[in-house]
Amino acid sequence: MAEDKIKTNEPQKGIEGSILQWAPQAWAHLELVRSKSPLIQCITNFVSMDFMANTLLSAGASPAMIHSVDEIPEFTPKALGVCINMGTLTPDWLPGMKLAAEVANQCKKPWVLDPVAAGGTSFRLKACLEMMDLRPSVVRGNGSEILALFKGSVDSNSKGVDSVYGSGDAVEAAKSLAQQSGSVVAVSGAVDFITDGDRVVCVHNGVPMLQKITASGCSVTALIAAFVAVDPSNAVEATASALAIFGVASEIGMDMARGPASLRTSLIDSLYGLDKATALGRVRISCL
Prior knowledge:
The protein has 288 residues and is α/β, with parallel strands linked by helices. It has a single domain, classed as UDP-N-acetylmuramoyl-L-alanine:D-glutamate ligase. The chain contains eleven helices and nine strands. Helix 4 links the parallel strand 3 and strand 4. The longest helix is centred in the last third of the chain and has 22 residues. It catalyses: 5-(2-hydroxyethyl)-4-methylthiazole + ATP = 4-methyl-5-(2-phosphooxyethyl)-thiazole + ADP + H(+). It is an enzyme of class 2 (transferase). This is Hydroxyethylthiazole kinase.
């Protein structure tokens, strides 16, 4: 299938550059997801399945929660992209994760890794590093997770899925990890940083209350997989677009929310109903 090309001229630096380049690009990515409805295979944790699937559906993509090794050789080639999340990891699930990544690579389909709590335990870290060896197109994690992958060691201060580092603390590690792995690396936080080892792009959209909604990070990783699936040759731009669009949806949802539970619902509604004028007016992306 021929790739849909999105014009990706080098954005101007600074927040104002988002108005001139990044915001139209983010909207173009969302429009492409809506028009193509890419099939995204998700191997994910039990906590995130519902939110992840509904995020993909509300953006216009088609989710499929397929993780069995008996189905992967036949199903994964049909998907336009794959999202692999290490959240509720068990030894039984790891072979399927590896097989899906291998099949995606063979079929030249992008796949995205979410190394949940990578530094929490030796078993989890080893599994995440083994997945990194399979060269994901994009890796999206919080500061602690990206630092754990870069250092290759368990973090004695780990708080599981909660980061003890800000996203800015992991920028240099993310750049080095991207250079070593060939993957685009995204660090989520108050500001999201996306790098290919050379460029660093910053997304300034989102709300603090996302930290109070379980699987919000997992869900934006799935959205990244959908955006990269429709524009695999521009993974940095597609990743930044996904993070910004999700962040804009959370900002709009926050205007209607009374707390985390209602934000979850209003975020999904806002993503589904997002229009061009709103996206162009609210996307905030810059370059370091």
